[in-house]
Prior knowledge:
- Keywords: Metal-binding.
- GO terms for molecular function: metal ion binding.
- This protein is α+β, with helices and mostly antiparallel strands.
- It has a single domain (2-64), classed as Alpha-Beta Plaits (2-Layer Sandwich), CATH 3.30.70.
- Helix content is 34%, strand content 35%.
- It contains two helices and four strands, in the order βαββαβ.
- The protein has helices spanning 13-24, 49-58, and strands at 2-8, 29-35, 40-45, 62-64.
- It has a four-stranded antiparallel β-sheet with strand order 2-3-1-4, covered by helices on one side.
- A hairpin with a 4-residue loop joins strand 2 (29-35) and strand 3.
- The longest helix has 12 residues, at 13-24.
- The two termini are 14 Å apart.
- The mean pLDDT is 97.
Amino acid sequence: MSRTITVEGMSCEHCEQTVEDALEGVDGVTSAEADRDAKQATVEGAADADALVAAVDDAGYDATA
């Protein structure tokens, strides 16, 4: 299952990697790809949307599912 969430605050490649790492740490996520230009992250797997948002928020960015 694929899910796209909106992520505000990414400004560089390091930011994208930080968001990807945070998302990949969520149970059920098999992969994540962040795109700062689109202000989105695409997540593969069966993770809960609230857990994805919380992980990105904890990493210092603003996310909405």
